[in-house]
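Standup, Tuesday
Yesterday: got the pipeline producing structure tokens again.
Today: sanity-check two examples.
Blockers: none.

Example 1:
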Amino acid sequence: DCSVLILHGDRDKAMPVSQAVRLANALKERGARVETHYFPKASHDLGRRVDPELRAFLRAHLLDADAEATS
């Protein structure tokens, strides 16, 4: 069981956003749970812009894993 978070700026010149879309689609086709967030006007260095999404993803998936491990 795999959960993946993809965070990508739509103005990233190092890695086109189309690559993030392809990755997300390929992972979903293989049964992974994929959450994507695309940031308008953001480049490769997203920095603090991703904090809320990253924290929410980690809370949801790490707390789920902790609950399963203790039951």
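Example 2:
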Amino acid sequence: VGVEPGHVALDAGLAQQLRVRALSAEGIELLGRASSFATTDDGVVDVDARGMVTARSEGPATLTVTVDGAR
């Protein structure tokens, strides 16, 4: 599972769309897979079900994306 961009720095109130790429063991992109997102600090950043990241306040946070059980 890959996420683009891999690193995001946003000022509070700004947003960035993430793009998720799920790949098979052979490196073939798997289309139409459902993904879910989680953040280590929802006071710093919010991420919706579509991968839209919105900065809430200053500070670090790590986002995790899961596709078919893989991170």
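Quick observation on example 2: The mean pLDDT is 92. The chain has no helices and eight strands.
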